Every structure is written in structure tokens, then in C-alpha cells.
């Protein structure tokens, strides 16, 4: 598992080199988008981190494809599966792209029959962030540390999104492998999970740090453990792990935390159009106004573009039989 995690880390690091190449003059790809409407699919409902991020990316990609109009279309359902299936099976004309949940990497690894795509074949445009995962608990729960959580005599409820989402898969992996006293309640999408915590329907969640930072800053919840990332204000979950199953689960989740907020299109987009999209994405995600807005919204920014992203996705999907079996067993009752 450690060697596999090393492969993913190397692939992610390689993304940063030689990828920020933008066209000095408009080529045929850029010219194609003049007067065209691009549908940017967000595979969840309005509200929440994915939607906020997707709308910001679409806004600034439009800026760098002169004459284009980007229209955001929310397409929620089945843990982002409906939106991802739609993107993959769209016409490869460069006019449909979008963003979806990292958890679909897990779904493809375990062979989810509802998948109508192959992530290795998609036209990868970029990823905007790396986003550590956090264990979040309500301030009303009285839980102040991961040790407090593990000492509970009765399970508490954690929210998650739909089956197949990164939220549900990662929560299931961690809860089962670490024997956390948690009952998972699925079906909370967009900002519903935060509302559920505030209403007392659930007491916690495993999610991305960027999606919950403001919620924590406002005093509604606290972070008690983190997976990945360089922040030192929250203990790493790996420090609490004592079993091989737990170590495997944490390593797998950590690898996915490095890939966040994808943008991709269907397979087969013509090279000049794909290059134009990647150039626009590179310019968008380094635009000073984009970066300022992302900071204001609490969105993490660690972007990469093009083939480096595709390589990282392929590496993430290239699992040993041991890891595939572990994932399938952990999610048998999902």
C-alpha cells in the first residue's frame, strides 16, 4: 500500500511541471469557441463546494475563450454518477464538460455496474485543488477529540452523500476499518449535510476540509482528525491507526485527497479544441481575480492541467488485487 501511495504522490508532483503552457496567439481551437455555448455540468445540486468551485471555474474559462458562453447545468444524483455518465457519453465536440466527485475513482476500482464510463479514456482538462479530508463533529455533540469519539458507548450519526460518492465511500472505509462508533446516514447532498448538523439530525461527517472550513470557523462544528494535507492544527488520522486494515483505508483516502475538483470532457475531443480548453483552464485557475475569489470563498487551490492529471487518475485506478479486494469488502454493505 505504501509503494502504491508513493506512485500516486509522484504522479501528483509531476503535474506541476511543464503544464502551464498557454497559447500566445489564438489558434483554430480558440477560434472554434467564438460564438459557441459550452455546457459545464456540475454533478450535484446547487450549493456546496463542488457547485461553488464549478461555477467559478466555468466563469473564468469563459473569460479565456473569447466569444464563448459557459452555461452551468446541475445534474445531481447517485453520488455524482448521473452527471459523470452524461459527460462521458456526450458528443466529443468540446462543448460539454464538467466536474464530478473523486469517489467515482473508487466506484470504477470496485466495478460499480451503474458506471457508464471509463475514467482512463476521458478528455482530462485539469484539477483545481488538493483537498485533505477531515472528521467533523458538531460542537453540540460534546466531542472534542478523536479519542472522545472512539470512547463513545453508543454510535452517533454521520451524514454522507449518495451511494458511490467519495463522501459515502470514504466514510464507510474509515468507519469500518477503524471501528468508529458511527452510523452512516446517506442522501445529504450539496449543503444539506451542514443543515442536518445544525438541526441535530446527524452529529458529524467525513468531508473535504475546504467544504467545512467556514462552517467550523462559524462555530457550528470542529475538526477532530485529518487525512492528508500539510496543516498542523488538526491531528492526522494516521496517528490513531493501530491495524493493517486501518492503515490501508487511510492511505487510500489520502491518495484521493490529492485529486480534487476535476474538470473533464468525453473521450475523443479533437486535439486543437482540447488544447484550447486546457489553455483556458490554466489561465483561469491562475488568474489573480480567480485566486482572490477562491480565497474569499474558502476554496483550496492547487491546480494542474492536462496529461499530468490524466496520468494521476490512471495511477489511482491501477490498484493491486489486494487493494481491490479490500475496497470491495469494505463496501459490501454500502
Automatic annotation (TrEMBL):
Family in the record: Belongs to the UPF0065 (bug) family.
Keyword Signal appears in the UniProt entry: yes
Top-level taxon of the source organism: Bacteria
TM region positions: none
Keyword entries, A-Z: Receptor, Signal
Pfam family, one: TctC
Name of this chain's protein: Tripartite tricarboxylate transporter family receptor
Annotated signal peptide: 1-26
